[in-house]
Design a protein that fits this description.
four-stranded antiparallel β-sheet, single chain, alpha+beta, eleven-stranded antiparallel β-sheet, HIT family, subunit A, 22% helix
Amino acid sequence: MSVETQYESAHYKPGTYAAEHIRITPTTLADGRDFFYLDDDPRYVSGQLTRELKDPRPLTDRFAPHVDAEGREIPVQAPQMRRDPLTGEWIPMATARMNRPITAGPGATASGNPLAARKPGDPYQDGEVPDSDYDVVVFENRFPSMMQVPGVPAEAGYVDGNPLWERKIANGRCEVVCFDPKEDSLPADLPIERIRTVVEAWAFRTAEISAIEGIEQIFPFENHGQEIGVSLAHPHGQIYCYPFLAPKMESELKHTEAYFERTGGNLFKDLLAAELEAEERIVFRNRTWVAYVPAAARWPLEVHVAPVRDGVLSLDQLNDDERWGLAQMYSTLLKRGNAFFDTGDGKGMDLPYISAWHQAPLHDLRREHYRLNLQFFSFRRSANKIKYLAGSESGMGTWISDTTPEKIAARFHELGPIDLESEG
């Protein structure tokens, strides 16, 4: 297909690979939410086959008022957030999430899977995907923690009228990224070509969402595993778009800015250079990315992944070579993460983990001294033990590590070569 027939906008423009091998098809769900197919199947990329765009569910417009038991019209309630006066942190509060379907774990409340492709004849027909198959899809969350409601201003107010407790509408956005149509597949088992499509989804949505007024930080992430608290057992991730800077980001910006003022350097660049010089904690690398256990790792399994090229602030700034390199790195990270703990049969385990993309904030002037990085971690500390965040961690935010970064890296070194180009 030609570049002209591929989806693009004023903000997202596909690179050479995506223009030729990934087709993005937009539509809207029955309640008005944005939905996108990202196809890497050549039949859909070429236009030989097309996707189902009509959502057949009888859903009402998500912004339409509803009528209560007494016949009164009640406007849609936007999620709100309140600022903690002791820390300055914003706390979004979304009561509608209490009604979201849960299909994983002992608290499961639904038998169907809303992230699966539609199954003709299946009695469960409340799935989010209109088609009976897909490669990768992205859509707005039906039960968002943050949401922009038309006509509702993001003006500040006060709880109980007291200026101690500032409140605002949680004027952000939440999206879901489904990695594969198979309900029982694992991200670690996906082919690199599919992970490359997921990487394109992250870059595509970062570019598009960056233009939405009121968004300050875009946070793609993946929760994986029942122990993490995942409510839907399907290979997927999420993208939270905050109308504020998250506390972790604010803390990192504080330190990267102070480092720049003190040395004139970029803290992320110098940390990567220092890890490469030390060598011991580098776990694998390719031409465009480096994965290492940070020298002050707090989790029993923690790996940071950084681009080699300077000046990369966000996922949409990656070039084609870097997006392919990232797909290889992410696949390797998931596979070796699953092999990290020895369960006695040599097969490893389905590792519970959180994969968190740290991108530069959109409008904060300190963004130029930041750098894109992935922070991957698991709170499993052995094949049958979990690192609980107890008194020191939860009560004071002070981590006590049960291992050392060097031991984590040494275990990774047992699982495969450091230089990925030497594989296969």
